[in-house]
Amino acid sequence: MQSRIKALSKMGRLEKLMDINTLEFEFNSSPFMGKWLIEALDLSFGYAGGLPLINNLSLSVGKKDRVAIIGKNGKGKTTFLNLLAGELAPSTGEVRQHPSLKLAYFGQTNINRLDLKKTIEQEIMEAHPDYSRAAARRICGAMMFDGDKALKKIEILSGGERSRVLLGKLLVSPANMLLLDEPTNHLDMESIDSLVEAINTFDGAVILVTHSELILREVATRLIIFDGGEIRAFEGTYDEFLEKIGWSNEVAESGPAKAKQRINKKEARKLRADLLAEKQKTLGPMQKKMKEIEEEIIRLEQKAEEENRQLLAASQENDPDAIASFSKAYHDSRGKVDQLFDKLEGITAEHDSKVKEFEERFNAIG
Ligand code: ADP
What we know:
The chain has helices at 2-22, 77-85, 108-112, 120-127, 133-142, 159-172, 189-201, 213-219, 238-244, 249-252, 256-262, 265-316, 320-365; strands at 36-46, 52-62, 66-71, 92-97, 103-106, 177-181, 205-209, 222-227, 230-234. By secondary structure, it is of the alpha/beta class.
């Protein structure tokens, strides 16, 4: 009995580990036939009593655009998203939203709008009328609220957990444009990878505010840069921006960015290419090993199951030799499974910490 319990809890561990490695989600794309989803024309805006934050900014966003809004905090990036979303009205200028625009907006305002008295599952189900309980539960699971965790009320959740609920809601709401305001702030590494993948396969436009250079590099093909009191559009990737224009002194002189400026662009490109090669060389074998161990665990679990069946049959037939031999085989297999789990957990932890380390090193290059 003891070993059965142990075996079952180990199975849970496997599911958990496999789950983390294969955590996948997709945004729910809604079709769009027009040219521009959103057109911002000569927008200006400032909060009452404050300085103007945005002056004569124009931006047209088409069907598959990937726009990143970047710059220091407090410059008006979130304000700009709120203008695009129609949450704020511009002082002058206009935001034209196409009639078939369907926005999914991930930001603090929307996190604050979650109903504190509802459960996670209720929030997800209400985001889409066609969602069955089972389908909602799958989304909850993908957002790491598996099983009964989906029944927790929003009021007891942390800020990070609430942002995962909102992300879950966005996944089920059909949309042709995502507005994502610092979506990675409360996500762990695996979820960030899944998010990048989901963004890249999303069949609509994406506008995001982010400080993560990883996301910037993986996603953005157009930029809006809040820098030195100016807002500029740049048609290109972040690397192209650094190469052709670069940050003004305002950003360059603030803290760690200053050191980054001293590395010239060519050098930085080479450093990045070298680091990418090193990353692949380090992580590739680890990922291969993890996969091999998982496959071996699954094979041994099946073998143990079969040996257990034979053990039962042998005991029903009262065959002491067969009982002894199947019992030994069964326990050997389980012992190996235990060892492999320990190994897998060790490698997974090492892998995850390496992933973090590489991201930090990428950020340090700039
Ligand atoms: P960012 O997203 O670039 O960090 P925000 O758009 O959040 O910048 O804010 C820009 C500036 O406007 C900040 O100085 C902030 O304090 C101010 N601000 C933001 N929201 C409001 C508001 N509702 N009323 C007045 N000032 C605000």
